[in-house]
Amino acid sequence: MTSSSLNAIRQSVSRRQVLSQSFAIVGLFGILIAIVTLIALILQLTIQGAPKLNWQFFTSFADPDPAIAGILAAWVGTGLVMLVTVTAAVPIGIAAGVYLEEYAKKNWLSDLIEINVTNLAGVPSIVYGLLALGLFKYYFNLGESILTAGLTLALLVLPVVIVTTREALRAIPNTLREAAYSMGASKWQMIAHHLLPYSLGSILTGVIIGLSRAIGETAPLVTIGALTFIAFLPESPFQSSFPFISLEWLKAPFTVLPIQMFNWVSRPEIEFQTNAAAAGVILMAMTLSMNGVAIYLRYQIRKRLKW
């Protein structure tokens, strides 16, 4: 190799190192801007809503008087809607992901389903609202209920759970599958005893990401007829007589925290802006709590894994 060729290689390597370092600096700068902006927004929201963060705000219904208005119906409705969403989306999503990844034959049909599921994860939420309006509200006659809202958000979360489950299963080495088969395990035993426990941390992360998106959605719930003013709570799921469990609360009208915030923000009184900021702080606290629980569970699950 001549000296001129060696110098050319050194210059090329040096140029690439400069480009790599430049990209790292640009990426770091972008992350810092995003973090600082997020912290500034959270601080501004917290400072504005801090005067309303008291027990009376949590235990009062919405009211035309901003001084006594609260979020009792909103946070209870948010919790019940998310309960229905989790119950409907997580089992179906994980089962669909396992089937598509482990059981379905690799042909044009499975490729078509995979492409559509992936694309559904990016569909605007208002489209799910229109779909739920025709399917759940008018075709199945579920009305403007908690059940309709939960199933609507379940449709929104379902593609995320399916895609995450498939990615989590793909990340497990094939040697683990082969070892299970060599010990005489059936396909389902291999999945239930090895794949699902080892991929549970990643699946859980996808579930929480989907739920974190769903808990802040407003458009699909407005489409199916969520109320902006409710001064009552759904019936209790527990009864004093047999069968001790009641499902009447699924048929109750509902509101959620994002819709309550939207209602307050649209009012001209400045006191309602403070109420909206306080509700936003609580919504963020619920979302961050869900993410915190997911991070803790994922850490505990992965700590026990030994490849």
Radius of gyration: 25 Å
Level of helix content? Answer: over 70%
Query: What's the mean pLDDT score?
Result: 85
Uncertain segments are none
Give the N-to-C terminal Cα separation.
46 Å
Roughly what fraction of the amino acids lie in strands?
Answer: under 5%
Give the overall silhouette: globular
- Count of beta strands: 0
What's the tally of helices?
11
Give the H and E element order: HHHHHHHHHHH
Summarize the main sheet. Answer: none
Structural class: mainly alpha
How would you summarize the topology of this molecule?
Elements: H1 3-49, H2 55-58, H3 72-103, H4 108-120, H5 125-139, H6 146-170, H7 174-182, H8 187-215, H9 219-223, H10 257-265, H11 270-303
Helix pairs in contact: 1-11, 3-6, 3-8, 3-10, 4-6, 5-6, 6-8, 7-8, 8-11, 10-11
Task: Quickly describe the structure.
By secondary structure, the protein is mainly alpha-helical. It has eleven helices and no strands.
